[in-house]
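Async update (no meeting this week)

Hi team, since we skipped the sync, here's where things stand on the single-chain job. The sequence we agreed to prioritize is pasted below, unchanged from the tracker. I ran it this morning and attached the output directly underneath so nobody has to dig for it. Comments welcome in thread, and please keep replies under the output.
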Amino acid sequence: MINKVSAYIRIILLPFIHCYFVVLRIPTIFINLYLLIAEATSKFEEALKLEPKRHYTRWCLGNAYTSEGFLETDGTIAYSLFKQATQCFQQALDQVI
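Output:
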């Protein structure tokens, strides 16, 4: 009887548990990461409205746009995010020089 139960667990339950962690848990990690980056982006944009001459804030905003672009699945949206990041980096560099 114990061998039948352990075989049932190995054959039926373990693949189901594995699928749960692979399919259901990992996307929630990416969703949470995406939400955190989006929140950081909005905070950096707010900070730039208060003090637009802070080059470090603009650089961090560029990093946030870059991170958002890497998580985006749509190529056109990712491209626009990378373009925004490039603009932020260039503006930060222009403020320092």
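Quick observations from my side:
Confidence is low (pLDDT under 50) at residues 7-14, 16-23.
Helices lie at 2-50, 55-71, 75-96.
Reply here if anything looks off.
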